[in-house]
## 1
Amino acid sequence: MESRAFFSVIISPFWSYSMVFIAALFRLIKTLIYPHSTPTLFHKHRLPPGPKPWPIIGNLPEMLSSKSAPKWIHQLMKNLNTEIACIKLGNVHVIPVSNPTIACEFLRKQDDIFASRPISMASRLLSGNYSTTGLVPYGEQWKKMKKIVVKELLSPAKHRWLHGKRMEEADNLVRYVYMSQNNNEGGLVNVRIATQHYCGNVIRKIIFDKRYFGEGREDGGPGLEEVELVDAVFIMLKHLYAFSVSDYVPFLRALDVDGHKKMLENATRTMNKYHDPIIKQRIQQWKEGTKTETEDLLDVMVSLMDANNKPLLTMQEIKSQITEFMIATVDNPSNAAEWALAEMMKQPKILEKATEELDKVVGKERLVEESDIPKLNYIKACLRESFRLHPIDPFNIPHVAMCDTVVSNYLIPEGSHVLLSRVELGRNPKVWEEPHKFKPERHLRDDGSNVFLTESDLRFITFTAGKRGCPGMVLGTTLSVMLLARLIHGFTWTATTNQPVELLQSEDDPFMAHPLVVVAKPRLPNEAYSLLD
Ligand code: HEM
């Protein structure tokens, strides 16, 4: 009798409707929080450790009250004693990582799942509404552009084809430093200007076959136009993936609360002002048949045809891909060379060893050539050390999870933004002995074999690995090595008495706090520089 009463309660219509309603409510709430969740993963695994999020806004209040989002994230990981964390910004799970084994799980083992990029105000603006390669979420557009970039624009054959243009700029670099001489005392050189503009000149030269947009300068230095353009590139870089609050709180988007949008629009306008007329004219020339010879990468882009003999790239794709190449080329090599030279000046034995290598491989009768690069292992070790210790960005470009998955036994929900920490990977004390010391020897191999700038084990970040790995590896290596090698081989470098070299990082970004301004004196016989006339 009692059991009959019990079952009649259980199955009474009121109770069964209530149970169904409660279950549906739970499911709705969960779907709102985790729109595409995989139930078993959510049962079995926890999110990586992290601060407790507020409803809806997540940990945005803590992030906004910190001076710098990257520093706040890194400090938080230290406080939690973790090498992988989960921070909620609005509805987005942000997953910072500072351990190479975990980093390899994301970018090598589960590369297919993490091959997308976030949607953000800055990436949309800079990529021309996602018409490029690097800033574009995974999909057909990315596949199309990556194929073109790898096979048509940055292929080994194109790299060889563009050798002459790169060498012209390597000579211009030496000319610019050489022309700073007053008398036998040497000349004062702002190394940051020399390195940033060398990179800007090379990419401009190989794309547009042009180094100056305006009159230029006698000494080979940047004109006003080039200064304006490179400044615009660094504004773009600073505000791309810069934790803009409106990316996490959609209803704030129209307000541009942190002013990032305005700054990016101005920078884009500057770049377009110089690039657009050249691109438009070139497209016209090819259309009219007044240009038929392929002389630079812009010609290659304009003349690529699809199966129906129609242009493969739209004007927007050409414009935006060129902007992306500019952003991708200028920052890493210039920053690595500036920091490397400063570190080497602080440890003269290292500078001496690098100079000895250069004299042995190149001699003193000529300047460094690209064909010397394979033999310059110590120079490459110095550059690796600079990339490890002084990365230009605190984090790698974000990768986005395309479905729920488990990494390092933690749940990583679909849509998570994975941020490999360039700073903390390179300085992880479990991986690197004396992590804060500039010690190029750690990158030399016992058997004396070739040193590369690539680091596929992700113990620090240069070009990363996998689907979204950098397609500019060869060009990036060439630029970095030629830059540092030519500066060190061609000149002796000393600090001025009133401005000693200080290895101090800027509060706001990964640059040296003060540009490296030091005295350069030619160290080769005059004949070695004669080709520069
Ligand atoms: C030393 C120089 C360079 C370094 C250290 C570097 C580093 C990187 C890194 C870390 C990424 C992101 C990889 C990832 O998401 O995991 C990347 C992507 C990319 N880089 Fe580079 N890069 C360099 C030079 C260049 C150059 C010269 C170009 C082209 C002119 C270039 C074009 C690209 C492109 C298009 C992507 C996006 C790839 C994709 O999303 O599929 N990079 N680079």
## 2
Amino acid sequence: MTSMTDGTAIREPSFRDSVNLMFNRAVALMDLSPGLEEKIRVCNATYTVRFGVRLRGQIHTFTGYRSVHSEHMEPVKGGIRYAMNVNQDEVEALAALMTFKCALVETPFGGSKGGLCIDPRAWEEHELERITRRFAYELAKRDLINPSQNVPAPDMGTGEREMAWIADQYRRMNTTDINANACVTGKPLHAGGIAGRVEATGRGVQYALREFFRHPKDVAEAGLSGKLDGKRIIVQGLGNVGYHAASFLRSEDGAKIIGIIERDGALYDERGLDVEAVAAWIKKYGGVSDFPDATHSKDGAAVLESDCDILIPAALEGVINLNNVTRIKANLIIEAANGPITAGADEYLREKGVIVIPDMYANAGGVTVSYFEWVKNLSHIRFGRMQRRQEEARHQLVVDELERLDKYLGDAWTMTPDFKTKYLRGADELELVRSGLDDTMRTAYQSMREVWHSREDVTDLRVAAYLVSIGRVAASYRAMGL
Ligand SMILES: NC(=O)c1ccc[n+]([C@@H]2O[C@H](COP(=O)([O-])OP(=O)(O)OC[C@H]3O[C@@H](n4cnc5c(N)ncnc54)[C@H](O)[C@@H]3O)[C@@H](O)[C@H]2O)c1
């Protein structure tokens, strides 16, 4: 590892190369043929599009990408990111991570990712709609948006609103496609979405941490003990993923969010920050500056390096790198963002004994619930409707029995209306989504953990995650025949 002696930043491999280095570390422990190894490593295709939109009296040209990493399963799946620094290397790295993420949580998709070089905050809503529709048109006419080929979702800088525009654009271009709604996930509930998708990635981060803390041996490896209750957490990025993770961990697990890092600086309070109040402040004023009741620091980096039990980077890639990794104090890092730790920094942390819960697992809640949404759209039936009917029938039998018992016991026991309602309720969509997500996060952790603890040559969860997912992708290719 190079050291920084003259104050200049250490140059590191690109995001794509960093993902490749992590991939290489795993395949070195596998018995894959060199040809298959290369097939799984490379990105199948990346489409670059430049399109013009007349806005504010002149034509503006935008550059966008859609990368398809692996089509061992179709459709391929992955978000669309809106940010100024989107580039081919980044979308290819993110598409590769999607391949391995989908394999790890067993959603039947290949990996893809897209991005548009744009600062979404620089445009009005109606302008963003025109830009998004044009981008969607460019991708859809090449089947890079298509329910059976390529299904995007939200990522940094995009959300439900953009997904609704994309779905509508696709529908207009494919008026006879009865499955058109399944061309994109992360749509609003009233435009073909599914309950629980908005918060799914943050919810998945919470479920991942809960599962980690169910294993005292793993918790001890991170130099911690006990449960999530009272753990001191620092979060970088209070956007979709960071906000929901922080909010749930604080309100449902009793964790203390002692630091929040945003674009314009950071907030710190050992007593724990009110996440909802901070989020409301950011919405109103566009940043964390001047938030009352907390120490404000202009230097977000200093808070990232502060002492805490759990660090949750939930913003950008490469934020923990060779320039700052020696100062990172957290013993447990959960990668809510994609690629927040560079390959070099990862090596340093591993040697130091820091436990990293890797991105491909930690933020897989989004794609898991996207899968439920896609299935819901294709089945054309509200998720949970059939199950609810069955549940209701089953519960009705119980209630009938209880009513008989009620009559038999007379004054000795009376069934309250509340009790009866509870039994009759059955499961609704949100409950099904949550339990499906929880089950997925638990199962995927078990599969990584088993590899981590059972093989001498596997020293960390990241390599374990890669071993599980590459093994599954390889099995698909072998079964399919190349
Ligand atoms: N949205 C999803 O469902 C989803 C799913 C899987 C992975 N991810 C990953 O999670 C990460 C965040 O995505 P998101 O959807 O929450 O994006 P988002 O745009 O909703 O939020 C990103 C947040 O990070 C903040 N931010 C930007 N630059 C920053 C900086 N330099 N320092 C501190 N904060 C900064 C932004 O102000 C914003 O609050 C990305 O890596 C993304 O790929 C998102």
